Amino acid sequence: xxxxxxxxxxxxxxxxxxxxxxxxxxxxxxxxxxxxxxxxxxxxxxxxxxxxxxxxxxxxxxxxxxxxxxxxxxxxxxxxx
Length: 81
Description:
By secondary structure, the chain is of the alpha+beta class. The chain is 47% helix and 19% strand. It has a single domain (19-75), classed as Roll (CBS-domain).
C-alpha cells in the first residue's frame, strides 16, 4: 500500500498541518478540552519555552474523566442498569 510511487515522493512537509494549536502546561483542563471541538482537532501540543513538552489527546481526556469520576465509565453504567 505504501510502496507506490506517489508515496516515495511525499514529504512530511507535504502532509503536515500548519497553524499549530497549543496550550501552556498550566492551562486548565476545561479550556484545553473546549479547544478540541472548537478547532476540530483530537490532539493539542503542550508547549513550554517554545518547545513541545507533551501532547494532550481526546483519549487522555476520556481516560482522566473515567478515572476521576468512575460513574462515567461505560462498564459501571452497564452493571447498574
